[in-house]
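During the second year of the project, the team shifted from modelling isolated chains to modelling whole assemblies. The rationale, set out in the original proposal, was that interfaces cannot be judged from single-chain predictions alone. As a representative example for this report, we include one of the complexes processed in the last quarter. Its constituent sequences, exactly as entered into the pipeline, are reproduced here:
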Amino acid sequence: MSTVTSAPIAAPVNAKSARATWRKRENFILGLVAVVCFLIFWETTVIMGWAKPLFVSSPTRIVKALVAMIADGSIWNHLAVSGMEFLFGYTLAVVVGIPLGILMGWYRRLNAILDPFVSALYATPRIALVPLIIIWFGVDLGAKIAIIFLATVFPILVSTITGVRTIDRDFIKVARSFGASDRQIFLTVALPSSVPMLLTGLRLGLGHALIGIVVGEMIGAQAGIGYMMSLAGATFQTDRVFVGLVIIAGAGMLMTEVLRMIERRFESWRVDTRN
Amino acid sequence: MADPQIKMSARGVRLDYFNERIGQTLHVLDGIDMSVNEGELVSIVGPSGCGKSTFLAAVDGLIHVDGGEIRVSGKVVNEPGPDRAMVFQNDSLFPWRTVLQNVIYGLEIQQKMPKSAMIDRARGLVELVGLKGFADHFPHELSGGMRQRVNIARALAPDPELLLLDEPFAALDAQTREFMQAELLKILERTKKTALFITHQIDEAIFLSNRVAVFSARPAKIKEIVSVDLPSTRMLSMKHQPRFRDLQAHVWRLIEEESARTGLMTAQ
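Output from the structure prediction step:
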């Protein structure tokens, strides 16, 4: 009677899809042109003497400073130190934030007990905790990791809790109708449906971790991108400050984009709130 | 109760619902008496909000009754069990599972056979509902009608004695709905299942059913049980026959009376 004949995913090469592709490409080109214009304008203001390079640097000066730092090898040490801090701090936040978030999302009582602390700390600007961290950890690697951890763990924790808690009621009804136990509901419904929110948490955490790097290294360090920037700032090496800025911004954009791509892959898992 | 012909029986089923927001107890079901015989498809229709979905959830064991009893194959229903399976209105397919993995779900939960047997059974059902070749697709890649086919296959997987369907085609467009009605009858015939079907479409109820139970407005009682004396092999073209129309008019009149009685609709 109603046999299915057509494949569900065809690749229609029609005018509409061509227009959508063009619109995407157009957006990219517009953005690129705007950036190039901005860089030219920036360079021009310095060449024309409208602004002093000591204050605003310029694209070519930034590139030159970067090349010099690569040539004398100093950049690698800064990158390695900051990368290490990031790796430890972020990993620790993930390892603590996700399991704890899953437990807090699933066990109402545990959530009730821990929620006041989490809410208070989440609402506190984490920079306000820096003096305490210095008292406890000094200004060594441990302190940097602690700062990055504290900056990162809360967005991950809170997103994971939300992810586990917002389960489509219909899914629970289906599971219960098949006689699923609480444990089975947790494993087959709550966990998979928390994945999109969890990924969002990881992405939000990235930005916070980068803030943590800069803040942590500004309070005292021997190396690192943040340290390099604050030292350069204190000695009016504006070009070097911008080098650090470009590196931090580039790393942030790159990692955020990678996570965004992973998130898109799981977009269809997101809880449908229409019902 | 020993009558093996009777798959499901409800005797004096009462159900109250406490509404926390208004702090009042609503009487939803007020003594429902009905039964479904082996191999039969019985539909329940009634005015909107009359409690027919609540009754179905009670038969599934998702909600406890406050009085009377529901028996399936002679056993009193207290909780969900493998002898019943529900096809929900919103297809509620798990988006992280493929078609095959969705169909397997109930078998996985009930853990009664080895994994390879589960896969074989699920594959057979995917084919039975006409989705051969789509086993490895994800739900979001399917149309509404196809998703409901998966939903039906998922419910059939644990081989329930009684299939419960809660307005399964309500969200589909009119054409797809008609095709799915015919398709459901074919599936039920091939699997020899007994079914209890909720709908607000009167023509759908008559087309599919051996009998149609008309619920009164809330608190719901059985207003009338209408026997559908149409040939047992149903074809979509029957919907235009005079007898079909008579039955449709009759059921509609019953619902109209109920709606008028409770002010849902002004009496004419």
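Residues 90-159 of chain B form one domain. The interface with chain A takes residues 60, 62, 79-82, 84-86, 88, 90, 92, 94-96, 105-106, 108-110, 130-131, 134, 137-143, 145-146, 158, 179-180, 182-183, 186 of chain B (CB under 8 Å).
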